[in-house]
Amino acid sequence: MGATYFSGKGVNVTRALGLASGITRTVVPIGAEDALPADASESDHGVIVTVTVPGATRRNTIVVNGAGSTTNINAQPNPVSAENWRRLGDATLECIRDIAATWLVIAGSLPRDIETGRLFDLRGLIRAAQDAGVRIGLDMSGSQLEHVVNSEVTIDLVKPNRDELSDLVGRALVTVGDVYDAAQELRTRGVESVLTSLGSDGILLVDGGGALWAQAPLTVVVNTTGAGDASLAGYLSAIDRDPENSVEECRRAALRRAVEWGTLAVQQPTTILPEIREVPGVRLVEFDPSHLLSAQ
């Protein structure tokens, strides 16, 4: 049984926030060989902003077995010209102005310059967004995440999973304490907050307030792809919302919601959340650096 649908990290985050009545935009490069996919519904038009670039749109394949084990087969993004990269940046800044955005999340795989083969420099876009009062979040992996983290700009939030954080610091992460130390290392490199998803061990938030750890009750796992996107959306939906709450109350509410939305996501066969609801049993737990992480 298979299905084809319009997705991607930024699209997933936008759709999840939309379910919670968030005002968002996602800027997506669409290959000129493709029409807007049929499952980009009418409600997405104007929320998902497309920029047409030459070639075909990137396609990924997710294989899920009956036990809930997920295998991702990800294509590389097509390279784009410097002019089309500029158009993507301009569209992003226009969206920021249109909705008075408070966050810009740069997510997924970055394209390379078709002329040089190098990753594009994000510093200009990040600084322009920051000049507009916008905070910056990153949800990407591998050399691309390292490229941005090491680009001498301040990043407000990075949302890695355990493997991605391990790759960034160049060592295995065996305990919760290892994850905390790795997150603190990123903070010395200009990252304010690190929200690390740990699978069945929950999510660890490390920021200027210290460490917060939250876990969910045991649940049936259908598909893990997209859980991190849902968790990020949950965190963003709560971290800035209630001015009557203290910073600490917002941190706790945001982490709890990140775990709730991630838990909802792993119960879905696709990366698209059908609804947002409270998940009973999500709890903040005492930070235990000696806790051994579950095998992956």
Could you outline the blueprint of secondary structure elements for this entry?
Layout lengths: L8 H11 L6 E6 L16 E6 L6 E5 L5 E5 L7 H18 L3 E5 L15 H9 L3 E5 L2 H8 L5 E4 L3 H8 L6 H13 L2 E7 L5 E5 L2 E6 L11 H13 L7 H20 L16 E3 L11
Parallel strand pairs: 1-2, 5-6, 6-7, 7-8
Antiparallel strand pairs: 3-4, 8-9, 9-10, 10-11
Which sequence of strands runs across the widest sheet? 5-6-7-8-9-10-11
The rounded distance between the terminal residues' Cα atoms is 26 Å
* Fraction of residues in H or I helices: 25-40%
State the domain count.
1
Task: Work out the strand percent.
Answer: 15-25%
> Overall pLDDT, averaged?
90
Compressed to H and E, one letter per element, the order equals HEEEEHEHEHEHHEEEHHE
Unreliable sequence segments: none
Number of DSSP strands? Answer: 11
| Derived structural class | alpha/beta
- Supply the number of helical segments: 8
Rg over C-alpha atoms, rounded to the nearest angstrom: 18 Å
What CATH architecture label applies?
3-Layer(aba) Sandwich
> How would the global form be characterised?
globular
What would you note in describing this structure?
Helix 1 crosses helix 7, helix 5 crosses helix 6 and helix 7 packs antiparallel against helix 8. It is globular and about 50 Å long. The strands form three sheets. The protein has a seven-stranded mixed sheet, with helices on both faces. It has eight helices and eleven strands. Strand 5, helix 3 and strand 6 form a beta-alpha-beta unit. The chain is an alpha/beta fold and 296 residues long. The chain has one domain: 3-Layer(aba) Sandwich (UDP-N-acetylmuramoyl-L-alanine:D-glutamate ligase), CATH 3.40.1190.20.
